[in-house]
Every structure is written in C-alpha cells, then in structure tokens.
TrEMBL record:
<feature type="domain" description="Uracil-DNA glycosylase-like">
    <location>
        <begin position="309"/>
        <end position="469"/>
    </location>
</feature>
<dbReference type="InterPro" id="IPR036895">
    <property type="entry name" value="Uracil-DNA_glycosylase-like_sf"/>
</dbReference>
<keyword id="KW-0411">Iron-sulfur</keyword>
<keyword id="KW-0234">DNA repair</keyword>
<keyword id="KW-0004">4Fe-4S</keyword>
<dbReference type="InterPro" id="IPR025404">
    <property type="entry name" value="DUF4130"/>
</dbReference>
<dbReference type="InterPro" id="IPR023875">
    <property type="entry name" value="DNA_repair_put"/>
</dbReference>
<keyword id="KW-0378">Hydrolase</keyword>
<protein>
    <recommendedName>
        <fullName>Type-4 uracil-DNA glycosylase</fullName>
    </recommendedName>
</protein>
<dbReference type="Pfam" id="PF13566">
    <property type="entry name" value="DUF4130"/>
</dbReference>
<dbReference type="InterPro" id="IPR005273">
    <property type="entry name" value="Ura-DNA_glyco_family4"/>
</dbReference>
<keyword id="KW-0227">DNA damage</keyword>
<comment type="similarity">
    <text>Belongs to the uracil-DNA glycosylase (UDG) superfamily. Type 4 (UDGa) family.</text>
</comment>
<dbReference type="InterPro" id="IPR005122">
    <property type="entry name" value="Uracil-DNA_glycosylase-like"/>
</dbReference>
<dbReference type="InterPro" id="IPR051536">
    <property type="entry name" value="UDG_Type-4/5"/>
</dbReference>
<keyword id="KW-0408">Iron</keyword>
<dbReference type="Pfam" id="PF03167">
    <property type="entry name" value="UDG"/>
</dbReference>
Length: 480
C-alpha cells in the first residue's frame, strides 16, 4: 500500500508542499512508515493534486516546529521529509514532544536545522557581488555562490532587504535569483565557468574591493579558519588580504582611491556608499525593526507590551547581547534600561566603553514573565523561544557584522553560538564565529544583582568590568 501514499514534492525545498501533504496525511492517521517522500519537480505528479479526503480531526502544531521544519526542508539529507513527518506524528499525540531533548529524533532534526542555518549565515556573509555593465547600459551586481544545502530561496529575503535599490543576481548551481528593484525572479542554475568572474571584471572588482577594504571588519585568522576554501574563489578580497593588512591603511586607501578614480570606478564606489551606513544599511535595519514590531514567531508577543529591538550605531565594533527584556524594558521599548541595565551601564563606564558607541540587543525580543499579584516576575525563555527569536538576531548580526560580539549570560551564548556552553569554561577567550567575527562570553548583569554577599558582589563586578576591558581592547586591536 506504500504507493498509495507516495508524496512527490515540487522542489528540493518545497516546504509548502510538504506541509500540506503532511497535514492531510497526519489528520487521516497515516503512519510515517506508510509514506514515501520524493522530489521530482514535475508539476503533474504532485501529491497535492491527488484527491485526498482527510478523515481525522485537525490538531495544533507548535510554531517552533514549523520554524524548525522550514529550515530542515532546505537540508540535502534525503530523509529530511520523512524525519519531519515522524516528528509531526509524535506531536499529534503529544504537543510537547519537541521539548524532549533526549529524543534522538529531536536531536537529529535540530542538527539538520543548525547546518542549514550555518549555510544561510555563510551565504549572507560570503556572497560577493561583481559590478557588470549590461547591454542596456544599466549596472547589475552579480555574484556566484555554492551553498551546501537548498537554501537560496530561504536566504533571498536578506539580500532583497539589504540591497533593495540595486539590480542584482545571485547565481548558484541549483538556481539563480534576480532582483530588479521591485520583483524577485528565478532562473536556472549556473556553473562557475558561466558566471562572471574573470578579467577584466575581476580586476575591476579587486580594485573596487581594495578601495572599501576595512581591516577592522575583517579578522583574517577567523576568516581563513571559518571560511571553507570553496568560497575563496568567489571572494576577490582573499587575494588582497595579506598585502592590504601588511601596509598602512591610509596610504593604501589614498593610493587605491587614485587608482579607482583613474580607472573610472566611481560608479562602483557610489554603489558601495548606497550600501553602507546612512544608505541602504540604515533602511534595511529600519525595515527589520518595523517587521520585528509585529513578530508572532512564538507566543511571547501575546502577553508582552511590545517587541524590544536592538539599538546603537550600525557600524559598532562591539555588539552586546542580553537574554530578554525585563519589566522596565518592556514598558520603555528599549534594551537594558532597568536594574540590570544600570549595572551594565556602570560597568561599561568603568571599562571606558561609551554606551552610545556599542550596539545593544537581546537574544529574545519579548518579555516573558509570570504574573504574581501586581508584579510581573521574569521567567527564563525556553529553547523554542530562543530558537524562534534567533531569526531576528541573525538578521541584526548580518547587517551590522560586528567584529566583536559579547554574549551576556547563558541564553545569549546559546543563541549566538547555537549550542549550550558553560560560562565558566568559555569566559575570557574569543570564540570564532562563521561570519569572521568573534564571540566573548561573560556573565549577565542580573547575576551580579542577585549576589547577596557584599564582598563577593564587589569581586564579581570587578571581574565583569575586567571582561569588558578585555573586549574593549580586543575591538580596538581589530580596528588598528
Ligand atoms: N536583561 C536582559 O537580558 N536584557 C535587557 O534588556 C534587560 C534585562
């Protein structure tokens, strides 16, 4: 009877097709081992077109599972659709099944989602556009990229927001996507050989890149370690990193500026200005900020007053990440303005870090609390809520690309590093991040607030200030 439940999906990343079929099959009581999932791409064979009458009752599916499924579907693992259905099947009888961390299925699905997220992150960080003059005289920015998973559609929104005013194409072996300033369209995949990349474009791009090179934004050690070699070929700057770092930046820029002017690269430089702070970056951030205000990715929005988004300069070299807004932040709509914020501000001041120069945000953007009488008592966000909110912090990080990120406490560390860490084990040394930045983990300011003994409190506050000083020095070192 297996053939009776053969599901053929339209594409490798066909989340909607999987969801519709899975919902009908689960409601009809079809067990996981009675279904064969395949991807065909030929529209005629789609399961969705077969007449199916779900016979059972519908059941609620938790939002974190939907978010997880959207990522997992993009993985190349051929079993992904079946694994997701097996999880959905469990959720049918136990809506908390996802919370069972000891369940190997939960673990496997989370690992698949994590690999997809890493791939998306790499695409955001490592796509490099080349400027191409089109026959109609218009400029188009073209990039070639080879993702590990089926993430191109999933990652496209980021590029639309980031480069709204440009006409661009991202070519990949599986498909190409094109933005004309208003509409996103798709085309067939491309091989590296067909993609623009060689001279003379390459030479022009290389000079162009050199003109915008900012060593503060590029951590070579981490970059070489984190960036898989296969991306290097698509990134002109890898051939420039050593010479540029070796020379004094100002002299270099002066020289390159002259070369750029001589070679007629003004247009490229202007395009970059549109992308940089004050231009598209600010607009992208504002769009993100607005979108976040309507966030319903988990249930926390239902009881909180508002989304508390990050704030600070978009070219900040340090990003601080807290856990979630507290009672006062929820009212004010700004991060770290309550009691923990006071401890944080005081420590920043003692460490010589002006708050106005750093970007401050939280891993979770809505206040979670228990009502006790008139008081709203902070309660810790769970794994699903951290996961649901990771989308926002990933977007903030992709836009700002801070060379140094400081995770304040375990929740922030979990969100940034995508794994559970013990603060005492990782405190004090940098952890390389896939985007070339580094993460420093320290305690949360509210931990300092809760210490009852005055001596220990003083000691721990001093240690916290020392951590901040180290981070300050590191950010300065990376910028020098
Ligand atoms: N605690 C946090 O983690 N963030 C805030 O914004 C306030 C308190």
């Amino acid at each position: 009877m297996i053939d009776a439940h053969r599901v053929t999906l339209a594409s490798e990343d066909d989340f909607d097709g999987w969801r519709d079929a899975a919902r009908d099959l689960a409601e009809a009581g079809v067990p996981p081992d009675a279904i064969v999932w395949r991807v065909d791409g030929s529209e005629d064979d789609l399961f969705a077109k077969e007449a199916r009458q779900p016979t059972g009752a519908s059941f609620p599916v938790p939002r974190p599972f939907i978010d997880l499924a959207k990522s997992v579907v993009c993985h190349t693992d051929p079993e992904r659709f079946a694994l997701l259905y097996a999880m959905l099947w469990k959720l049918r009888s136990n809506r908390h099944a996802m919370e069972d961390r000891a369940d190997p299925l939960v673990d496997r699905l989370e690992n698949l989602a994590k690999e997809v997220r890493r791939d998306v992150h790499k695409m955001h960080a490592f796509v490099r556009f080349r400027v191409v003059e089109q026959p109609d005289g218009m400029t188009r920015f073209i990039a070639f990229f080879e993702p590990d998973h089926h993430i191109v559609r999933h990652a496209a929104g980021f590029f639309v927001r980031r480069f709204t005013n440009m006409r661009w194409s991202i070519l990949t072996p599986e498909l190409s996507i094109h933005w004309d300033g208003e509409t996103l369209s798709e085309g067939p995949g491309t091989t590296r050989a067909e993609a623009p990349g060689g001279d003379p474009l390459e030479a022009m791009w290389t000079t162009y890149y050199a003109s915008i090179f900012n060593p503060a934004r590029l951590k070579v050690g981490a970059m070489l370690k984190e960036m898989p070699k296969k991306y290097w070929r698509n990134m002109p700057e890898t051939s420039l990193v050593q010479p540029l770092i070796a020379s004094a930046r100002n002299r270099e820029l002066e020289m390159i500026d002259r070369a750029a002017a001589k070679e007629g690269l003004r247009e490229a430089l202007e395009a970059e200005r549109r992308i940089e702070p004050g231009g598209n970056l600010r607009k992208s951030w504002e769009a993100l900020f607005k979108e976040a205000r309507g966030c319903t990715r988990c249930d926390l929005y239902k009881r909180a007053n508002q989304t508390v988004f990050g704030e600070g300069p978009l070219d900040a070299s340090i990003m601080f990440v807290g856990e979630q807004p507290g009672d006062q932040e929820d009212v004010a709509g700004r991060p770290f303005v309550g009691p923990a914020g006071q401890v944080f501000d005081e420590a920043l001041e003692r460490a010589g870090i002006p708050r106005s120069e750093v970007y401050v945000t939280n891993a979770v953007k809505h206040f979670k609390f228990e009502q006790r009488g008139k008081k709203r008592i902070h309660s810790k966000p769970n794994a699903g809520e951290i996961e649901a909110c990771r989308w926002w912090i990933d977007q903030e990080r992709s836009l700002i690309r801070p060379p140094v990120t400081v995770a304040l406490g375990a929740t922030a560390a979990r969100s940034i590093l995508d794994k559970v860490v013990t603060i005492s084990r990782v405190r004090g040394s940098p952890i390389a991040l896939p985007d070339g930045g580094e993460c420093w983990v320290t305690v949360h300011p509210s931990f300092l607030l809760r210490i009852p003994e005055p001596d220990r409190k003083r000691e721990e506050r001093a240690k916290f200030v020392d951590d901040l000083k180290r981070v300050r020095d590191r950010a300065a070192e990376l910028a020098s």
